[in-house]
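In the laboratory, one determines a bound structure by crystallizing the protein with its ligand and collecting diffraction data. In a computational setting the workflow is compressed into a single prediction: the sequence and the ligand go in, and a structural description comes out. We illustrate the idea with S-adenosylmethionine.
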Amino acid sequence: MGREFIDLFDGWAASYDQTVSGEDVEYKEVFADYDGILDAVVDHTKGPNVMEFGVGTGNLTKKLINRGHSVIGIEPSSEMLKIAQIKVPDAKVYDGDFIEFPKPEVQVDSIVSSYAFHHLTDEEKEMAISKYSHLLKKGARIVFADTVFETQASKRRAIETAIASHYNNLADDLSAEYYTDIPTLQRICKKYDFEVLFEQKNKYVWVMVAEKK
Ligand SMILES: C[S@@+](CC[C@H](N)C(=O)[O-])C[C@H]1O[C@@H](n2cnc3c(N)ncnc32)[C@H](O)[C@@H]1O
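The predicted complex, in structure-token form:
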């Protein structure tokens, strides 16, 4: 579910790693300290068994494997998936999405993701967290890095700033995809018995660490 952006990612796969390295001026601030953000996700990850959603070209996957985790990756874009399989042959990457995915054969210790949860509507985000609350045991974690706003007003201001800077792709993206706010994620996590905290990493991206109570 939440797969309406897959064609975009199939088309973006070949140049995606150039975008995250800051070559696209519109997305420079979104991807500022991209490597440090992925490292922060790994720092908060509990092991050994990790499930990663929206692996893309496998950049977070590679860092998790290098840190000794065993990774089950889930990715709905076939073009992204092909690149990830070449870049990180030690990870098992399957077709799927945040809500519909093959049942893991091991007890998962952490569910992680970077730059992807905003593809789900808030209702779909709640369905996903509800599903993870059944998969995870006490003390296990969800660690998600993504663009998220402190309030809906700060989201509107970000869109206005992008328009004023003539960053039309960024403005369209912020308007069309489902970037949420921190109070919404706090409400969902609390409802499904997670204790949650947020760390701001750049102007757009926060890391959410939710631990099962
Ligand atoms: C911006 S990329 C992020 C890739 C990688 N995690 C990173 O940090 O560079 C977003 C990824 O989420 C995937 N995606 C899109 N919709 C999804 C969904 N509903 N469930 C899981 N992944 C999704 C895309 O195919 C793409 O690979």
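Residues 122-135 form the longest helix (14 residues). Keep in mind that any predicted model is a hypothesis to be tested, not a measurement.
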